[in-house]
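Two proteins were folded this term; both appear here.
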Amino acid sequence: MPHNIKEFLQVARMIENHQTEIIRYFEKALTNAKAENLNGKIQRFIANNFSIRNRDFFIYRLQVYFSPAPQKKI
């Protein structure tokens, strides 16, 4: 019987734990993909610049790299 199989119970528990997010996706097509993408960019940036000795300069570069582009005045 499926209700006694460990894997079915794990999947059921996972769906119950993430029920709100699953419903939100199907109702409004909302995901956290943009946040995950930005997090990945930050992690790659840190990994590529880990050896910088001057921490202030590193933080400055991080801010410049991830800040939005300035808007043109009309």
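Next, the second protein.
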Amino acid sequence: MGKDNSLIIAVDFDGTCVEHDYPEVGMDVEGAVDVLRELRAKGHRLILFTMRSGSKLDAATRWFKERKIELWGVNRNPEQKDWTDSVKVFADIYIDDSALGCPIMFVDGARRPMVNWTKVRAQLEYDGVL
């Protein structure tokens, strides 16, 4: 944790914040907005960590702005350049539908599974993050 007990949390977009509908922006994954807002309210710093680029990345950052979820970084950790030239984004926690161990759920009609934010919230509460 940072000096102020805040964490840096890297969050994927497609399949994590929104349902898989790339290159479009899918529907919000249930619970994502609430948990992300709670994380920000606790002072944690969010990094959008996505493969999107150009106008598709702009659409993803707009999704956060429209939902009033402040991003600390987009595909980069703003403080990382002070101690490494690595392109890998440093974070304390990564929330990604493709991450091993991240709770996922299957929704009827969806092409791929999505993050289960109910279980993510429970884990974050258990860990003292929320």
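The chain has one domain: 8-126. The longest strand covers residues 8-11. These notes refer to the second protein only.
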